[in-house]
Each structure stands twice: as structure tokens, then as C-alpha cells.
Design goal:
3 domains; 18 helices; alpha/beta; Putative ATPase; Arc Repressor Mutant, subunit A; 3-stranded antiparallel beta sheet; P-loop_NTPase; HerA_central; Rossmann fold; 12-stranded mixed beta sheet
Length: 499
């Protein structure tokens, strides 16, 4: 537990471990808030263990926010009450959450696990900007811990986009350079000092340097600690969990520190050796080459027989004979309702055939006319314009019975303002939004429009957005969210590349 000095001087000493001679290594929390901390060490040196020890010992004294790229610190939530903020939703949502974090003084872990490097940088920058932009009345003390800081403040451009690098580096610079006046105390940890932006590292006044092997990193560590270059070799010999500490919050001269135990554990942990399962060679082959019962077998696609020219001509002849017969007219509203149901049934049967969704409208309408004559549809065959409208909705797979009728009528009224071939796409999005379902992917949207082109689907959304029917946004995981402006409905995030 934290060692608390005399309350009259209002100093809180955090116990981080042991020094030489069995003395306890303390860290002045209030001095840390004013002077910031840099932790450096190669993978496996104990950086995460050090950060966890520091967070656990100070949890009762100061609000904390952890930028966690690997989801390693989410386990603090169970014991110390941290709220885990998963990077979902839009950047606007994340910035508003950061503002509430400062307002209500809640300790949080921003979990960036599962995002690629570009989106991790944007999410971290958005969250840090939200903390930084809080009103002056909310500038309470807060420890802001950034693990793997070289990812968010790189010394050089990498494979990420320039926009993401610029935003993330700017947010990290603000945290370390200007955060103190806003109550934000940056604690950054990195594997490689050489990969961390110098203007970010230079703002720290406290240092804990762990095991390092590369000459360039050892030289920078020695410079930061005020050690001679020949003493830099000592960083190679440090054991796991051992660090050299220096700074006004720790010691005025470099001292070795062994980090103490922690009460929680990360989800990853270190690799543990375990024996391989014992099994004969032949059984091992069966496990690899034999399909298990729960696997879905891949069956070869059997081509369906293609109708011959004689079959098509016979079908057209039969259709012509049926057309000459007397076509009954609807006598009442009930018969009219049956007619509409029959039309919908015929269109559904047409679209159930392979490749029907991608055939030209003229071919589909010809098939529709034939089927209507064969069925002796009451009131005759609908014209091409009516067929196009009904086909557009049917292609989208929209069934009105699955949604609220009054709400759906509003969607149909707005969709009527679009060209008939786009109405089905709008209703497809409306159905997803009303059902709180993920936004349909480009393939599904393209199929509803009658094409295989994902690019055409993107063009459709852009066209509707330009006309004010909807607004497209991307959440922090790269998933698309569509808001229907006139209705105020919004889909859940969905992968635009989903099949």
C-alpha cells in the first residue's frame, strides 16, 4: 500500500519497490503530477509491471486515465473501479466521453485493442484532446498513462497516414508540454527511446530506465540520466523488473530500484512452457487432413440446366395464348389487395432465381409479364414504372411486417422522393436503422441496386448524402454508420466490406 507521510505537509509517497540495502523506494505523487515520468525498457523488461504497480498504489489518491493499445490494463476495472472505454462509435462520441471523464472524475482505461495502428493513433488523439479541452473548472489532477508511447509519438513517419501521425503527435506534445497547467500529468512508457519523438521525451523530469540492448537507446538513456557514456553498458545487465530511477519525484541521483509485486495481472502475461499433447503420428495426420463433424463441407457447385431456345419460344407462345383470354377485373378492395399480394409473390419468385438480381430491367419485366399472364392476374399486368418501383423494394429484401407500420410509412414517403431504382437502397438502410442492426455492406447495397460493383454502392451513398437524405460516418474501428437525416434514425456500425 502507499506510504503516506505526515498529513500536515500533504505529501503522498507511493511505494514502487525496493532500493539497495533493503530500503523502500518511494515516489512523491504531488511532485510527479508537476514533473511527469518517462519509462523505458525493451520488451520483457517489466515496463507494464512497473506501470501497473504505480497505478495500483496511486489509485486511491488521484484520478487515472490509461491509453492501452493492447487491452492489458482492463483488469484494473474489477479491483480498482476503472471504467473500460472501448474505442467504438465516432470520434465525436469519444471526445464527449473524455469530457465526462474529467467532469465526473472517473478513472478509465481507453482500450484500443483490435484497432490497426492508424485508428489507434486517431482514437488516442481524440481522447487526449477531449481531456485537454475540458473547462477550467474541471482541471482536477489526473495521471495520464500512455503505454507503448512510441506508437503515438513516433520520431519519424512510418506506415500510418500523415494525418493520423500529425494528430497523435500533436496530442502527445500537448499532454507533455502543456498538460501540467490543466492538471494532466503524463506518464509515458516506450520500448525504444530512439523511436520516441524527442520533444515529447524531453518534457519528462523523472525517469525509470530498464533493460536496453541497442547502443543508440543506451546512449539516449545515459544522456537523460546524466550518466557517462561508458556507464551506459550497465543497462544491458539489468534484470527483469529492475530499473534505474532519477528525478525530483524519486531521487536526485540515479539509484537502482526493484519494482514490487502487483495485485492484478494483465490478460496477456508472459509465455509459459507447456508440454505438447501426446498422440501417435497417424492420429496427428488425421487431425490435420480429416474434416471434423462441425465443419461445413464445401460442395462443388453444380451448374443448373440452361433453358433451350425451343423452351423459351414455347413459354412465350403459352403466354400469348393466356393474354388472349379474358382478364378479370377487380370488383372490390379485397380483390385489389389479393392482386397486390400476387404481384409481390411473382416478383419474389423471379428474384429467387440465380442471377435474377443482376439481370437488365427489360429482361426481368418481360419475364414478369409472362408470369402475370400465366397467373391471369386480376386487372392486367402493371406497367414498367410500377414494376421498377416494386422490384427496387424487393431487391432490397425489405419486409414491412418486420417493422413498425407508422414508422415505415414515413420511410416510404421519403424514399418516394428518390429515383425508383434508389428507393430500395434507402429502405434497406431504413430497415437496418429501425431494427438497430449494423449498416449493410457495399455488396448488399450493390445487390439491392441490381449490380455487383461495391464502387457503385459507395457512389449511391455519396449521391444520397449530397442530396441530404443521409449522412455517412466512420467509427474508430473503421465501420460505417449511416444516419437518415429526415427520420433521425441511425444504423449500428457495420463493416462496409462485409459480404
Amino acid at each position: 500500500m502507499a506510504l503516506v507521510c505526515a498529513r500536515l505537509c500533504m505529501t503522498v509517497q507511493i511505494d514502487i519497490g525496493d532500493m539497495a540495502g533493503g530500503k523502500r523506494a518511494g515516489l512523491d505523487l504531488e511532485e510527479l503530477l508537476a514533473t511527469r515520468l518517462l519509462v523505458q525498457g525493451n520488451s520483457g523488461s517489466g515496463k507494464s509491471h512497473l506501470l501497473r504497480r504505480l497505478l495500483e498504489q496511486s489509485a486511491q489518491w488521484v484520478q487515472q486515465a490509461i491509453i492501452d493499445p493492447e487491452g492489458d490494463f482492463v483488469t484494473l476495472a474489477d479491483k480498482y473501479g476503472h471504467v473500460v472505454v472501448d474505442a467504438v462509435g465516432t470520434e465525436k462520441d469519444l471526445k464527449m466521453i473524455a469530457g465526462r471523464v474529467r467532469q465526473h472524475r472517473v478513472s478509465v482505461v481507453l482500450n484500443l485493442e483490435g484497432l490497426d495502428a492508424d485508428r489507434q493513433m486517431k482514437a488516442a488523439a481524440t481522447f487526449l484532446d477531449g481531456l485537454f479541452d475540458a473547462d477550467r473548472d474541471l482541471w482536477y489532477p489526473m495521471l495520464v498513462v500512455v503505454d507503448e508511447a512510441q506508437l503515438f509519438a513516433p520520431a519519424a513517419a512510418g506506415e500510418v497516414t500523415e494525418e493520423a501521425r500529425r494528430r497523435s503527435l500533436g496530442a502527445m506534445t500537448d499532454l507533455m508540454c502543456r498538460g501540467r497547467k490543466r492538471g494532466l500529468a503524463g506518464i509515458i512508457a516506450t520500448q525504444r527511446l530512439a523511436k520516441l519523438a524527442k520533444n515529447v521525451a524531453a518534457e519528462a523530469s523523472n525517469f525509470l530506465m530498464g533493460r536496453t540492448f541497442l547502443d543508440i537507446d543506451m546512449a539516449r538513456a545515459a544522456d537523460l540520466l546524466g550518466m557517462e557514456r561508458r556507464q551506459a553498458e550497465s543497462f544491458r545487465n539489468l534484470d527483469r523488473g529492475h530499473f534505474i530511477a532519477l528525478g525530483p519525484a524519486v531521487s536526485r541521483r540515479p539509484i537502482p530500484v526493484k519494482i514490487g509485486p502487483v495485485e492484478t495481472a494483465g490478460r496477456g502475461g508472459g509465455p509459459k512452457l507447456m508440454p505438447l499433447p501426446e498422440q501417435p503420428k497417424e492420429e496427428a495426420k488425421d487431425l490435420i487432413f480429416t474434416r471434423s463433424p462441425d465443419e461445413i463441407p464445401v460442395r462443388p457447385r453444380i451448374a443448373e440446366p440452361v433453358a433451350s431456345t425451343d423452351d423459351v419460344l414455347n413459354q412465350l407462345t403459352s403466354a400469348g395464348d393466356a393474354a388472349e383470354a379474358h382478364i378479370p377485373q377487380a370488383d372490390n378492395l379485397f380483390e385489389h389487395g389479393e392482386r397486390e399480394e400476387k404481384i409481390d409473390q411473382i416478383i419474389t419468385e423471379i428474384l429467387d432465381e440465380d442471377e435474377a438480381a443482376f439481370q437488365p430491367i427489360a429482361s426481368l419485366y418481360q419475364d414478369f409479364q409472362v408470369r402475370c399472364r400465366i397467373a391471369k392476374l386480376t386487372g392486367g399486368t402493371p406497367d414498367l414504372q410500377t414494376f421498377r418501383e416494386k422490384l427496387s423494394v424487393a431487391r432490397a429484401g425489405v419486409e414491412k411486417g418486420e417493422v413498425d407500420d407508422s414508422a415505415w410509412q414515413q420511410a416510404e414517403l421519403i424514399a418516394a422522393e428518390l429515383p425508383e431504382d434508389m428507393r430500395g437502397v434507402y429502405l434497406l438502410l431504413a430497415k437496418a436503422a429501425l431494427a438497430k442492426a449494423p449498416c449493410p455492406g457495399n455488396i448488399e447495397i450493390a445487390t439491392a441496386y441490381g449490380t455487383r460493383s461495391p464502387g457503385r454502392a459507395r457512389w449511391l451513398l455519396s449521391h444520397m448524402e449530397e442530396r441530404g437524405f443521409l449522412v455517412c460516418a466512420t467509427d474508430l474501428r473503421g465501420n460505417r454508420i449511416v444516419t437518415l437525416t429526415d427520420l433521425g434514425w441511425r444504423t449500428e456500425p457495420g463493416d462496409e466490406a462485409a459480404a
